[in-house]
Structure prediction request, 229 residues.
Amino acid sequence: MSRHAVVLLSGGLDSATTAAIARADGFELTALTVEYGQRHQCEVAAAKRVAKALGVRRHVVERVDLSAMGGSALLSDGDVPKGRTADDMEHGIPITYVPARNTVLLALALGLAEVTGAADLFVGVNAVDYSGYPDCRPEFIAAFERLANLATKAGVEGTLKFKVHAPLIHLTKAGIIRRGTELGLDYGLTHSCYDPTPAGLSCGQCDSCQIRQRGFADAGLVDPLPYAR
Ligand SMILES: [Zn+2]
Prediction:
């Protein structure tokens, strides 16, 4: 019998690679995509394409609107920064940080895991090119895993021992792209841009586009996505 896992699938490059790794590790997957009030629908459409391509058992799209909370450029609170240098990106927490996002998303994944009887959660956080987000660090993942086992009926009763897998956490962006490519993942299905054009073209200038483009260049591979510039 194959093991069952819940994977957080945003539609971006990292979560798609994480899902491909989980599948290659022999897990049967339930994918969870959260519509949290992102500026655009490109991510959700990408998540649907990736889920289909990876043959997930079930794809749950859940709407939890964080835009009422605000506090992030990704929730239409201020403009997405463009053309920042690598040095800018390495310092400080950018305004594209969504307050407590990964805690909220993992909590939803945990609830779904408990309901579906999955002890394993997969999340595509990455501490190397993490753009300064505190909830992408190994300490955060370890703390959440502890919480998962304290906070649930299945954890307390011992029917499930939750494990939070973050297989990308120590990989560079180039390393992530190489790994996904080895697993046959089509990165043309994914979406990374924080501020795409109305037609859905990636801007090529936001932090996420720049990190992605540098990752492909460093991996010696071609990004299959078209860019506005
Ligand atoms: Zn962009």
